[in-house]
Amino acid sequence: MKLTSLLIAKLAYPGMPAVLVETWATKLGAACEDAGIDTPQRLSHFLAQVTHESEGFRWMVELWGPTPAQIRYEGRLDLGNTQPGDGFRYRGRGPMMLTGRGNYRTVGQRIGYPLEQQPELASQIGVGSLVACDYWNAHRLNTMADLGGLTMVPAITRIVNGGLNNLDDRQQRYRLAAKALGI
Fold first, then answer.
1. pTM value?
2. Within this chain, do residues 41 and 22 fall inside the same structural domain, yes or no?
3. What is the pLDDT of residues 37-64, one digit of tens each?
4. Would you say which domain of life the source belongs to (predicted)?
5. Could you tell me which of 127, 176, 104, 113 has the C-alpha nearest to residue 28?
6. What residues contact 128, with CB distance under 8 A and at least 6 apart?
7. Domain of 91: which CATH number?
8. Do 143 and 167 touch, CB atoms closer than 8 A?
């Protein structure tokens, strides 16, 4: 199943320039294909999550207040944030909003990019696409996506986000993708 610019346009933020739609379709499409995110069910679940996390590919870097939740990133050992400033430096990036020094290190090693040293790389469309697909596969989310449709969105959301934040939006995005993919 090929990720098309038509599908990206349906899920992207309103008014996304055509050149960005095409870039997303090409780069994210190639990453998804390589990662085995290649069935209508898998793509629908994956796109629901990444388009929610990035607000339709609008934001590739987490908006920083800092909010109370963001302040708590500082010193979070479960995220690998061990140095002062790690919370901000390793804030969410890419369509899956990779967060935390440890995650940048681990994912960077797996995909072959120095993300710990250059975290901003994760905000580039091509690298961010690789990051998102790597995260998806590292958490075996294709297997979960294969188990079902809309009923699996909460379980996948818990893994992606750590809770059920904005579940309604993720479910709506799943419905849009699934309909476009003929599910």
1. 0.95
2. yes
3. 999 999 999 999 999 999 999 999 999 9
4. Bacteria
5. 127
6. 60, 93, 94, 95, 96, 122
7. 3.30.20
8. no
In three-state form (DSSP H/G/I as H, E/B as E, the rest C), the secondary structure along the chain is: CCCCHHHHHHHCCCCCCHHHHHHHHHHHHHHHHHCCCCCHHHHHHHHHHHHHHCCCCCCCECCCCCCHHHHCCCCCHHHCCCCCCHHHHCCCECCCCECCHHHHHHHHHHHCCCCCCCHHHHHCHHHHHHHHHHHHHHCCHHHHHHCCCHHHHHHHHHHHHCCCCCHHHHHHHHHHHHHHCCC
* Residue written as token pair 């799943």: 174
Residues 168 and 78 in one domain: no
Domain hosting residue 101, numbered range: 68-121
Biggest CA-to-CA distance, the chain: 48
Mean residue pLDDT of the chain comes to 97
Residue type (1 letter), 173: R
pLDDT at 1 over 90: no
